[in-house]
Amino acid sequence: MLVELAEERLAKKLTPQLFEHCAGVAETAARLATQLNYDPDRARLAGWLHDCAREWSPAQLLRFAQANSIEVDKVSRCQPILLHGPVGALLAQNWGLHDYEILSAIRYHTLGYPGMSLLAQIVYIADKIEPGRSYPGVEQLRKKVSHNFDEGLIHSAAQSISYVLQKRQIIHPLTVTFYNWLVEKTGE
Ligand SMILES: [Fe+2]
Ligand SMILES: [Fe+2]
Question: Where are the domains of the chain?
Fold first, then answer.
């Protein structure tokens, strides 16, 4: 799938706010990819598509997941918005994208995944630091990422976990195993 086609399709389907966010993630992912010697065009395409199902309603996400044998675990059943990654990946596949690594980056961009590819890591971080993002701690995260990508990744996963803790929501086990994997990986 060409990036222009993805952009054109998303322009019709997303609200202007989400479209802007996806544009920001696409450009940030491409910039990070260049710095990390990864293909910026694949990173840009993944960035554009990562939230293609983000505006679906909880009922739509659950229905699509169930109809397409996407696993709906206990946490996702309570918070169907968590399904927008796996649902988005299948949606992108239905649109004609068959690049497994890009599909996997879309699938895991919300929760992370132990062993995730460099592309998936790039999209995960770009989603958190794209220029349109403004939340407490984003500036510190941007600095960490530009100083040391791996440290930035751990910092971001920790931020996500503490955000969920503060809101007294259930932490998805995948996010915890992702965090543990990052810590083990960088401590080696
Ligand atoms: Fe998302
Ligand atoms: Fe996003």
Answer: 3-134
* 7 Cα: distance to centroid of ligand 1 (angstroms): 16
CATH superfamily of domain region 3-134: Hypothetical protein af1432 (1.10.3210.10)
> Which residues are CB-neighbours of 134 under 8 A, at least 6 positions away?
none
Q: In angstroms, rounded to a whole number, what is the distance separating the alpha carbons of residues 170 and 73?
A: 12
| Gap from CA of 22 to ligand 2 centroid (Å) | 7
Give 3-49 pLDDT, tens digit per residue. Answer: 888 999 999 999 999 999 999 999 999 999 999 999 999 999 999 99
- CB atoms within 5 A of ion ligand 1 belong to 51
Distance 165 CA to ligand 2 centre (A): 20
